[in-house]
C-alpha cells in the first residue's frame, strides 16, 4: 500500500511539473525583456546554461546605471529586477559592468 501511495504521489508531481505553461516558465526572452526595461540603453545578454530547461541562467549587462557602484550593488539591482523569476530558477550567474 505504501508503494502504491508513493507511486501515486510521484505521478501527480511529475504530471504537475509537465503541465506547467510556458507563461509560467522562466526563459531567456522573458529575462531579457525585464532587464532591458529596467536598464534601458544597456547591452543585455542572457543565456540559458541549464541545457534548455530554464533552471540556470547567465546574465551579462553593461549599463551606465552601474557607474560608480560596487559590484555587489550592481548585482543587487539585477536581483531586484528579477525577483519573481529568481524564485523559479535553480541559479543565476550575473556579470555586470559600467558603460
Automatic annotation (TrEMBL):
<dbReference type="InterPro" id="IPR052275">
    <property type="entry name" value="Mt_Fe-S_assembly_factor"/>
</dbReference>
<protein>
    <submittedName>
        <fullName>CLUMA_CG011768, isoform A</fullName>
    </submittedName>
</protein>
<dbReference type="Pfam" id="PF01722">
    <property type="entry name" value="BolA"/>
</dbReference>
<dbReference type="InterPro" id="IPR036065">
    <property type="entry name" value="BolA-like_sf"/>
</dbReference>
<dbReference type="GO" id="GO:0005759">
    <property type="term" value="C:mitochondrial matrix"/>
</dbReference>
<dbReference type="InterPro" id="IPR002634">
    <property type="entry name" value="BolA"/>
</dbReference>
<comment type="similarity">
    <text>Belongs to the BolA/IbaG family.</text>
</comment>
Amino acid at each position: 500500500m505504501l508503494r502504491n501511495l508513493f507511486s501515486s504521489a510521484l505521478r501527480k508531481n511529475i504530471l504537475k511539473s509537465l503541465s506547467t505553461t510556458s507563461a509560467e516558465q522562466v526563459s531567456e526572452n522573458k529575462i531579457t525583456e525585464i532587464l532591458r526595461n529596467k536598464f534601458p540603453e544597456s547591452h543585455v545578454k542572457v543565456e540559458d546554461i541549464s541545457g534548455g530547461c530554464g533552471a540556470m541562467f547567465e546574465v551579462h549587462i553593461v549599463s551606465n546605471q552601474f557607474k560608480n557602484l560596487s559590484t555587489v550593488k550592481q548585482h543587487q539591482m539585477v536581483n531586484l529586477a528579477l525577483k519573481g523569476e529568481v524564485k523559479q530558477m535553480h541559479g543565476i550567474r550575473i556579470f555586470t559592468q559600467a558603460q
